[in-house]
Amino acid sequence: MVMKTVITYGTFDMFHVGHLNLLRRLSEMGDRLIVAVSTDEFNKGKGKKTLIPYDQRSQIVESIKYVDMVVPEESWEQKLTDVKKYNVDVFAIGEDWKGKFDFLEDLCEVVYLPRTKNISTTDLKKSLKRFLSIPHEDLIQAFEVLELLRRDLE
Ligand code: C2G
Question: Which residues lie with the beta carbon below 6 Å from any ligand 1 atom?
């Protein structure tokens, strides 16, 4: 049986259901799914500051049942060598990258998939930042009020 290999690349910071949906769909496209997780250094080059360091991001992705193998993504160019090295049949990625990797079409199928709506690491970071920017005393006061309400309900 010929093994159909799919590969994708990404940061996967603050792993969420958008990432999960993508990996599940990719796993349905072949027999083996390889995920190249962006290293912290490579992310700096992408202008992306990750909250979660590479070793944790790669451990999480490796633990996803749809994923067969995780490798580090250290450069833009490695896609060309990876496709040959791992005998890749399909390169796939979210459509936010539509057209950017068509140069791989000579080597393998190139697929851009719709992103999952209403979730992104950027939004998660924004809401986290908003919560953390609430003045400390306001949070204390809110918890005190909640405690009073809880006692009333007892
Ligand atoms: N994704 C998605 N839906 C979302 C968020 C992300 O389908 N709501 C997909 C992205 O399209 C991408 C993958 O999940 O295919 C990983 O997303 P990121 O971690 O943001 O990856 P990115 O930083 O775009 O890195 O060489 C390619 C780059 O490394 C891709």
Answer: 9-12, 18-19, 22, 38, 48, 73, 93-94, 96, 115-116, 119-120
What spacing in Å lies between the alpha carbon of 132 and ligand 1's midpoint? 25
Average the pLDDT over 129-139 and give the result: 91
* Residue 91 Cα to ligand 1 middle (Å): 13
| Predicted pLDDT of residue 1 | 75
pLDDT at 14: 96
pTM: 0.89
C-alpha distances in angstroms, 42 versus 11, 77, 101, 153? Answer: 9, 12, 17, 53
Strand order in the sheet with 109-113: 69-73, 32-38, 5-10, 90-94, 109-113
Please report the pLDDT score of residue 132 as a whole number: 87
